[in-house]
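hey so i finally got around to running the thing on that chain from the lab meeting. sorry it took forever, my laptop kept dying and i had to restart like 3 times. anyway pasting the input first so we r on the same page abt which one it is
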Amino acid sequence: MSRKCIISAVVMFMAWALSFFVHGVLLGADYSVTPGMRPPAEAKTLIHWMILAQALFGAAFAWVYVQGKEDKPWPAQGCATASPLRA
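ok and heres what got predicted. didnt touch it at all, straight out
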């Protein structure tokens, strides 16, 4: 991975962390009274999997972004960018 890809992955992860702050801290009280939401005790047992998934998501989309910035005609770039996202 290049330096640009690593920085992009870190930025994606930090964007998720900001989302976690907004939804977990600022809106947590509103979500706790909403029926159908996961109970906090159950969510705490799954948070490590969520962190891992978001870190992998950030790295994967940073890699896709770096791959899509090649000097190719736009249809080839579209296919190269979409192919990893199909899986």
